Structures are given as C-alpha cells and as structure tokens.
Prior knowledge:
By secondary structure, this protein is an alpha/beta fold. It has three domains: 8-227, Rossmann fold (3-Layer(aba) Sandwich); 254-328, Tyrosyl-Transfer RNA Synthetase, CATH 1.10.240; 339-420, RNA-binding S4 domain (Structural Genomics Hypothetical 15.5 Kd Protein In mrcA-pckA Intergenic Region, Chain A). Helix content is 44%, strand content 14%. The protein contains 19 helices and 15 strands. The strands form four sheets. Strands 1-6-5-2-3-4 form a six-stranded mixed β-sheet, with helices on both faces. A five-stranded mixed β-sheet has the order 9-15-14-11-12. α12 crosses α16 (314-328) and α15 packs antiparallel against α16 (314-328). The radius of gyration is 24 Å and the shape is globular. It starts with 7 loop residues before the first helix and ends with a strand. The model is unreliable at 87-91 (pLDDT under 50).
Amino acid sequence: MTYNPKSDFLHALHTRGFIADCTNLQDLDAHLMKGIVTGYIGFDLTATSLHIGNLVQIMLLRWLQKTGHRPITLMGGGTTRVGDPSGKDEMRRILSAAQINKNADGIRQVFARYITYGDGPTDSPLVNNADWLDTLNYIDFLRDIGRHFTINRLLAFESVKSRLDRAQALSFIEFNYMLLQAYDFLELYRRHGCLLQMGGSDQWGNIVSGADLIRRVEGAEAFGLTTPLVTRTDGKKMGKSAEGAVWLNKDMMEPYAFWQWWRNVPDADVGKFLKLFTELPLEDCNRLGALGGAEINEAKIILANRATTLAHGANAAHAAESTARDVFEHGGTGRDLPTLTLSRADIRNGVSVVHLLTRAGLVKSGKEAKRLIAEGGARLNDAPLTDAGQRISFENLLDAPINAPIKLSAGKKRHVMIALGD
C-alpha cells in the first residue's frame, strides 16, 4: 500500500498489519480526520463464545474506539438463522431462537472486555439485526432491496463461486445471506449513521455490496475495509490448537490454557502477533519479535500476558504466568492449572489412565492416549507413565496431599490436575 494514512485509526491499522483491502482508503481517512466515524463488524451467533480466530476483528473494533470513533458489534440474531456460506462446504446447522439468544449473551461477555458499551459518543450501542430482519416483509424486501442485485454479480462472489466450483450444494436460504448482510449495512447507516463495515478478507464481496447498496438507495458514500487471513508460521489455522478451538470465554477455556496457547506460538509469529493482538508500541513489537534464542521465550511471555490481560484481566494473566513458572521452572504443581474433578462414583472401581488422559482433554481418543504412553509422553505427578492399563484408585486421590491433587501431563507443556470431589 503506497498511501500512508494520516488518521490515528488507519495509521495504527496500516503499521500493525491489519489492512488487506479498502474501498477508498483516502476518502475514509479524510472522514476519520473530520470527526467521529461509526463502524461495525457483524458476528453470527453460532456458539456461546468467540475464539481467537475472531480476535483480529475484535481488535479492529477496539482500535476504532481507542482512536476516538464509535464501534458497533452487530449481533447476528437474524442472519444466524440463515447461515453465512463464506468458507463453508455445506449449509450450517439451523439453531433455535433460544440457542441463538443464549449464544448472544455469551459473545457479548467477550466484547465487554475489549470495548465500552453505553450511550456516549464513542460507546458501542447494543445492536442485533434480528430487530429489523425478524419483521422483514419479504415481498417489500425483494422490491426495495433485491432489485439492486443481479444474479450475475452474486454468482461472481468468491463465497458462492468457490462452493459451485467444488460442486457443493448452495441452498437458496444461504444465497439470500449476501443480500441480508448488505441490508444490515443500510439499516445501520439509517439508524446509527454507520459509514464503515469491516471484516475478514472472505467478506469483501458482501461488504462492497453493502456500501454499494447505501450509495444506490441513499446516495451516500460508505466504506468497506478487510483484514488479511492470519495464519501461524507452522501452517496451523489461527484459533485452533491440538485440542480444538481456543475460546475467549473462560467457561469454555481456562485462562491458564489460553495463556499457554500464546506462550507456545512459533518464534517467527511473535512480532506479528504482538502487533495484532496487543497494544504494545510498534517499536517494542519489532524489538521483541527480532529476539532469538532463549530471549524469544521472554517475548512470548509478554505476548501471553498482554493477550490474556485483554481477554481475562491482569490477575488471570499474572496467575497463569506464576503457575507456568512454578510448573516448568521450579517443579511445582501449579494451583491454577486446569482441574478435572472426579466424583467418588467415578473412581469407585478405579479409572484407567487412558480414560483420564482422554477425559482431561489432553488427547482426543483412547488410541492417542495409548500411543502417548508408549512414546513416553504421558506423566503422572511428573513420573513417566509406562503402563496403559494402569488405573487410578480412590486411595490414590485420598493419599494425595491437601491442595495438591494428582497432576496428569501430556508432554512438557500441557497439564491437568485430577482432584476428588463429593
């Protein structure tokens, strides 16, 4: 990108690597220099929590608010009932209204840790597209909105084209999604004066359609901005781990496990991730990302602390770091490690270590647990497990010292405490 933005928001995005495409960067920059700009990102409510694959978009909204503008976190209570075809090989599972509302409550908890909600000029309002989509008259929608779209153009969208190229079915309900997202932008422009829609690069076609719809219907200029696809240097998808998604809600993922994910990113990703997922000054991000050898580990700890502080608070980050140092540097058990609590009924006749490894989430299957044991990667209280048939008994847990339950480990970095409940 040859243009060097002057507004604080776009300058931060440009220098930290957030921008993939923008409909008109110079005009958007001028609007941002004149006064408060309202921008939004839509989030469909397909789970009770977002994961770190969504974190680039959340940080976009946070930077928008930090630089004096107004973000909108659009809850997709209406569009979730349809399903976004972008990047999907099949139609999404249809969720009930009750489940969608439950998911909205969980996701809103995530946003509240990154941005400020309220009625102030830069506060984010609570907005759900169900407010206008649930009462939409379909005939009126076709007449007033549908006439601005051509089938030729919709078929050219990457989200549609890629599905059809792979001979994957695309339902008519999903085909409507693109019109509904464009209509969301129009409604937010009318209700909140929203001029900017942001999203991942896979949303480019949908975002441009929304800006074009505002121009056609209201005769006003609106803008779209997308972020690049973020992947790890090791080829793994952002937001995934060996155990599954890296969730942002603590009831879905313990803060310690969240901290550990960041602590264990590849060395080559540290600088990039510091720029995208923390608010450290740019010069510090570059300096820390350039470290090598053992020094890069301290940079990873800074990354883990900063990312965990944003998601779970400073106390959780401090506890996670203290636990990690206790476990890895001093041979301790770490009282803040994730804990699996077994009932007395669970272990009345003993429980196999293979079952425990699986139930604790350290492996995905019994077969994987047996292989881990055979390869010497499983440990019980830091001692290697050598027998896949070994069982943990009621007496084992009763004999454990107070406040020091059994520690089960997979490799050197993943641990779960096994405790006895009622």
